[in-house]
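Section 5.1 Outputs to date
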Amino acid sequence: MSMLPTRVYGGVTVPDSPLITAALAFARAHSTETLYNHVVRSWLFGFIIADKVPTLQERDREVHSVAAILHDLGLDPTNELTSDDKCFEVDGANAAREFVKKEAGDTYDKHRLQLVWDAIALHSTNYLAFHKEVEVVATTYGIHADFSGPDVSIVEGLLGRDEYEAVVKELPRLGMKDGFGQAMCEQCRTKPQAVHETIAAQWGEKYVEGFTAVKTIDRLEASLARLE
């Protein structure tokens, strides 16, 4: 795979390609300002971290970039990219795949498209994503870092406080806690049947009146009881 041109953004050296530029514009058109800054910070943090991890050096850097930038398309405030029956992780993965097919054409084969899809669909399930391909791992590292900051064990030594603050200066957090929480609650209000086994359900149970998540254990025990 040919080397991509690079640029420096928020103090971080990242690849620069027409597809990445298009992905940034697409994310901006389908995100709140708060969530746009979040996905771009996630991209930058992912590069800071992954470039320090020997096993992640050979990753497809454009795939990593596009997946990180587009990972929250399933929270599209315009609702143009969302469904009535799928969780936001799957909506986002589907939307990103279709975007890349359209913009990149045959430069993205089935494998590269699957990497983008997997990185987005699995980004909220670290216990799965960290056992996937290097592009999925790198994407997940960056997203996790934007929620946890530089001083937690999973990124300790991989994201310095000065590196973190330089990115946040470029892309302020803009009330990320409330902005992300509102997006999760909106999922629970508008399509509760799609969120029961996702992270959104935890916001729903805490903040959305009348929302009760259907837990996997309850569903499975009921099914097993019928078969006795």
